[in-house]
Amino acid sequence: MPEQAMSDEEAVLAANQEFYRAFSARDLAAMDALWAQETPVACIHPGWDALVGREAVMESWAAILGGPGAPQIRCERPRAFVLGPSAFVICREVLEQQGWLIATNVFAREEGGWRMVHHQAGPAAQRQPTPDTSERPPGPLH
Amino acid sequence: MPEQAMSDEEAVLAANQEFYRAFSARDLAAMDALWAQETPVACIHPGWDALVGREAVMESWAAILGGPGAPQIRCERPRAFVLGPSAFVICREVLEQQGWLIATNVFAREEGGWRMVHHQAGPAAQRQPTPDTSERPPGPLH
């Protein structure tokens, strides 16, 4: 489906999904392609301090995707909030056997389409889900 | 200084600072006033699942600011990224005696000025700083 036929919300959700596809596939070229080229970028990996600027951000992805422990990651419940030429998505990140994180992904519209300008992921709960059980994190459900 | 005389970056940083002022002062009326009125909002408190919609978000602030344990919070190293009619700020949140968090705050321009549309805070490091020592969180420094 060409991007012009999609709503902004659908296009942003597609860009968000591509981020998680590239992450899971450890596809550094695709990860590089989905981040913004002209717009300043930042990134906050879970437990890290903030990274600012494309060079630092892409170095971090090279380290994470190239490392031996790169987890399989799945995105759940993505919700898009479109703000004109930018947007953000909030979603849950499910890592195999490691519980889940919660993320905010910010996108800006560039010539090629929606591109990521910021990513913050952090723990959603103190507890890890135990195998074969379903645990909800503390705090209000939305 | 009237907002029109400020750059967008300065105005966004001022809005970000007002968020931390209202938070520290436990000023629920000010907190309500600084969140967007027309633009959809969301919020991810540390360790909570995502909250979506003004009602849920403001209920959470009433609970947090009204509770007995509301911490003093100070914002450090705020950096603003302006994206036209929206912007995001990343900053460190220093809580008295509890270490620090790292936050992403998203703003949209409404009629009254820059208003918050999203806030995510999460732990910056596994370790808490020990009293009278300075500890840096793990991960690359920017």
What are the key terms here?
homodimer, 142 residues, alpha+beta, Nuclear Transport Factor 2, Chain: A, 4-stranded antiparallel beta sheet, two-stranded antiparallel sheet, 26% helix, disordered C terminus
Number of strands of chain A: 6
CATH class bucket of chain A: Alpha Beta
What sort of overall outline of chain A do the alpha carbons produce when their principal axes are compared? Answer: globular
Cα(first) to Cα(last) distance of chain A is 31 Å
What is the CATH architecture term of chain A? Roll
* Most extensive interface, chain pair and sizes: A-B, 46 and 46 residues
Biggest sheet of chain A, strands in spatial order?
A: 3-4-5-6
SSE series of chain A: HHEEHEEEE
Average pLDDT of chain A, rounded to a whole number, is 87
Secondary structural class of chain A: alpha+beta
CATH fold category name of chain A: Nuclear Transport Factor 2, Chain: A
Approximate strand percentage of chain A: 25-35%
Biggest sheet layout of chain A? 4 strands, antiparallel
Number of helices of chain A: 3
In terms of quaternary structure, the protein is homodimer
Radius of gyration of chain A: 15 Å
Number of structural units classed as domains of chain A: 1
Describe this structure in words.
2 copies of one chain form a homodimer. By secondary structure, chain A is an alpha+beta fold. Helices cover 26% and strands 33% of the residues of chain A. The first copy, chain A, has helices spanning 8-24, 28-34, 54-66, and strands at residues 42-43, 51-52, 73-82, 86-95, 99-110, 113-123. In chain A, strand 4 and strand 5 form a beta hairpin. The termini of chain A are far apart. Mean pLDDT of chain A is 87; it is low at 126-142. At the A-B interface, strand 2, helix 3, strand 3, strand 4 and strand 5 of A face strand 2, helix 3, strand 3, strand 4 and strand 5 of B.
